[in-house]
Design a protein that fits this description.
10 helices, Arc Repressor Mutant, subunit A, mainly alpha, Rna Polymerase Sigma Factor, Chain: A
Length: 201
Amino acid sequence: MLSVAVSAVYIEDVLLVDRCLDGEQAAARELFRRHRSRVHASLYRVLGSNRDMDDLMQDTFLQVFTSLRAWRAEASLATWIDRIAVRSAFRWLRARKGAPITFDLVDDDAIAPPSLGGARRQQARDGVRRLYAALDNLSPASRVAFALFAIDGRTVAEVAELTGATVTATKVRLWRARRQLDAAAAADPVLRELLDDGGTP
């Protein structure tokens, strides 16, 4: 049954891409509609909410549509699009390395739901802000790997596939990221509590 479901998704993807390549605007809109929420969520978890998110989404999907002929269906269309999103995030991080932090919690409810209550909610929001400030001090490669693994919930193998790295290189990047974050948390009790509470797996 599972293989039938996978085959159905694969066939749907192939047909949708073929329609896009034939210039069908409705197909392009459908591809964007199917994948935009996941791409936005991944970019948000890797980079935090920032003023460039719309540009990053636009850049990702521009690359998707201009590269669509290169999709060979060896990976699922979703995975292929996710790789392009990761490359967009990586380019953004490299371009702004050393720039001031502009992290802004637009989606407060996703970070700290109202059910947490006033003081606890504020503490969670503060912890997330400090986490992203600490992530800003990581190399782009370590940050992307850590965010995909610990915040986006990907496996090490998935992170390696999305970043085009080996599993060994990915494990080294994750180890370096966690070591730097632990060092930052040693001087920051709010960040320490977030990391200890499982704010990052």
